[in-house]
Design goal:
With 326 residues, this protein is α/β, with parallel strands linked by helices. It has 15 helices and 8 strands. An 8-stranded parallel β-barrel has the order 1-2-3-4-5-6-7-8, surrounded by 4 helices. It is globular, with a radius of gyration of 20 Å. Bound molecules: flavin mononucleotide. The site of flavin mononucleotide has 21 residues, from strand 2 and helix 9.
Length: 326
């Protein structure tokens, strides 16, 4: 099985990626949070930092682009090639209102002819740049029946990978993944298919594999944020002993915390980032709520550090206890 870390804007940037890669079973691929092309002059400083090769050593990273303009896409791809990238990913999944209202992300799925022309143009442009294209898509704007036509469009282009989050835009993150539509892609896609969505536990992967034993690619997001041992647990029954598991979690947390402290100005910003991470990371901890309350309330780094130390000290592992079935 090949594993890919999902792009999550504000969370899975290079600091998180490096920490994860150093402490847990490395992912086979990391897709970056989207580059949004707000800046006429090119990438923003934050975007450059995220894709700089020296910030991404030892990882296979694919930068993601969010736009509906072929010229912007190709200009960005060319910039990324100058940094050494040979593949880019197109975001056709973002469900956020501001993105969708501009016809980007999953909003682009409603304009099928335009999308087709866009893909034609960027495929030709990328060919000249000797770069590959992968797509991360939802299955429609409002109805899953749209996916058949979308798939016919995708099948016209040589994609290195078609990553499918089987929800429609109007689902946002509600409801359950629409597996019938995903099955259509497994049947008909000419490009390799990668599944993404709601894989939180090892059982979720097992169930998916029962339906599609030939499925070889998974993209994991919130499941890994909550349980960074998830890939190891999916891969095999090898038991991680509780002490080394806690040490690895501590190291992981420290790398992220120090990473943000080095690059962010002001403790408040660092605390904001760390609190956002703990929303996910606390989920498998048994009895986490009192510690989470302290983490949420922390105004100073010292208060935050004490709260985290308390959380980790009281972590009950019980052979990965909470992590197995949270
Ligand atoms: C906070 C947040 C930020 C996200 N940012 C991006 C992004 O930049 N690009 C993208 O393609 N998907 C983004 N996503 C969607 C995830 O990549 C993924 O498709 C989604 O979370 C479903 O997978 P999961 O159930 O494994 O988390 C984001 C999701 C969340 C919750």
């Amino acid at each position: 099985m090949m594993y890919c870390l999902a792009p999550m804007e504000g969370i899975t940037g290079y600091i998180y990626r490096n920490a994860y890669n150093a402490c847990f079973r490395p992912m086979d691929q990391y897709v970056t949070p989207f580059i949004a092309l707000k800046h006429k002059s090119g990438l923003s400083t934050r975007e450059v930092n995220d894709i700089l090769p020296e910030h991404n050593r030892g990882m296979r990273v694919v930068p993601q682009i969010l736009t509906n303009r072929a010229d912007d896409f190709l200009k960005t791809a060319e910039t990324l090639r100058e940094y050494g990238y040979k593949e880019v990913n197109l975001n056709l999944g973002c469900p956020s209102g501001t993105v969708v209202s501009k016809g980007k992300g999953s909003g682009f799925l409603a304009k099928k002819e335009e999308l087709d022309r866009f893909l034609e143009e960027i495929s030709q442009g990328l060919l000249k740049l000797h770069m590959k294209l992968s797509i991360k898509t939802r299955i429609g704007k409002t109805e899953e029946e749209e996916f058949e036509e979308l798939l016919d469009i995708y099948n016209k282009y040589p994609l290195s990978e078609l990553i499918i989050h089987p929800r429609v835009q109007t689902d946002y993150y509600k409801n359950t993944p629409r597996l019938r539509a995903f099955g259509l892609a497994m049947e008909k896609s000419v490009s390799p298919v990668c599944y993404n969505g709601d894989l939180f536990r090892t059982e979720d992967v097992r169930t998916l594999k029962e339906s599609w034993p030939e499925l070889e690619r998974l993209m994991l997001g919130r499941g890994v944020l909550a349980n960074p041992f998830l890939v190891e647990m999916i891969e095999g029954p090898s038991r991680t002993d509780p002490h080394s598991a806690i040490r690895r979690l501590e190291d992981f947390h420290q790398l992220i915390y120090e990473g943000y402290r080095q690059v962010m100005s002001g403790d408040r910003n660092v605390l904001f980032k760390m609190k956002e991470l703990w929303v996910y990371l606390s989920q498998p901890f048994l009895g986490a709520e009192p510690y989470m309350k302290r983490i949420r309330k922390a105004q100073r780094l010292s208060e935050y550090e004490a709260a985290v130390a308390g959380m980790l000290r009281n972590l009950e592992f019980d052979e990965m206890g909470g992590f197995r079935g949270f």
